[in-house]
Design goal:
Blueprint (H helix, E strand, L loop, with lengths): L1 H20 L11 H18 L1 H4 L3 H26 L2 H7 L5 H29 L2 H38 L7
Helix pairs in contact: 2-7, 4-6
Length: 174
């Protein structure tokens, strides 16, 4: 009887430990699909900002691009500031708490953010000539390729470090 209880406790501990590490249905090392769009938008504006010299912009294009990039930076800072505020806690404490209104407001806010960035991407598109747009696309493809290569190298390094630790364990200081 004691052996059965002990075996059941060990099985329960392993089960709970495995669930705590990786919940069922959760894919590990996969970016959130909602984040992918934000990352692409960030990469787009970073590529535009970093590749201004390579695009051979005219003076008028430079002025308009400065305005677009300033608008994007200001809006991004505004969004970050709003995320820092803990509005859910304030709403939960209030007497008029309605979680359905919060969800609707979040959906509306996401749509507003998406529309803003898409309008700025469209403004950059309209500002550049076809040749400049092609140069920008080539630069972005190169950046993505370099990011993937760096991520792969980083993964290989982590694997090697883990393997070396397993082969050469360091003594614990008691």
């Amino acid at each position: 009887m004691i052996k059965k209880v002990f075996a059941l406790m060990v099985l329960t501990a392993f089960t709970l430990g495995s669930l705590a590490y990786a919940p069922a249905g959760k894919r590990m090392n996969r970016p959130n699909p909602q984040m992918r769009g934000g990352l692409k938008t960030f990469m787009f504006f970073k590529a535009v900002k970093d590749s201004r010299e390579k695009l051979n912009l005219t003076e008028k294009q430079n002025v308009q691009l400065d305005k677009i990039l300033r608008d994007v930076e200001a809006y991004t800072e505004k969004i970050k500031e709003e995320k820092r505020k803990d509005t859910f806690a304030e709403r939960f404490v209030s007497d008029s708490f309605d979680p359905f209104k919060i969800e609707e407001e979040q959906k509306r806010k996401k749509e507003e953010i998406k529309n803003f960035y898409l309008s700025k991407i469209k403004a950059v598109h309209d500002l550049l000539t076809k040749e400049q747009r092609q140069i920008l696309v080539d630069i972005m493809k190169e950046k993505v390729k370099n990011m993937r290569k760096a991520r792969k190298i980083k993964g290989i390094r982590k694997w090697r470090e883990k393997r070396m630790k397993m082969q050469n364990p360091t003594p614990k200081n008691y």
